[in-house]
Amino acid sequence: MKRIANACLEQTLVFSLKEKISPEADRKNLELEVNHYLRQLAKRSICYQLLMREEQDDGSIRLKIRKQYNNYPCQEYIAEAGAGR
């Protein structure tokens, strides 16, 4: 019999500008969207670790995160010191 002992996902997310409003307002909204996403992870009690955050030349924000998958233990993958939760 097999069972899952630990599980996590590593994702690269790109938050893009919408270009329908002023660049300053759009960047502010983009920053709010990124922060909202990270708060939602914490609110849903999903362990995560932010591995990379960089702004692209086009103004979009790229995040690379490692997060818990389906409530499986993930301590081996996510260091407590760097965890978002």
Write the element-wise H/E pattern from the N-terminal end onward: EHEE
Strand content: 25-35%
Main sheet makeup: 3 strands, antiparallel
Please state the structural category: alpha+beta
Describe this structure in words.
The structure is a single chain. With 85 residues, the protein is of the alpha+beta class. Helix content is 25%, strand content 28%. The protein has one helix and three strands; from the N terminus they run βαββ. It has one helix spanning 23-43; strands at residues 8-15, 48-55, 61-68. It has a three-stranded antiparallel β-sheet with strand order 1-3-2, covered by helices on one side. The radius of gyration is 15 Å and the shape is elongated.
Q: Can I get a quick summary?
A:
This protein is of the alpha+beta class and 85 residues long.
Record keyword descriptors for this entry.
3 strands, 1 helix, alpha+beta, elongated, three-stranded antiparallel sheet, 85 residues
List the helices and strands and how they pair.
Blueprint: E1 8-15, H1 23-43, E2 48-55, E3 61-68
Antiparallel strand pairs: 1-3, 2-3
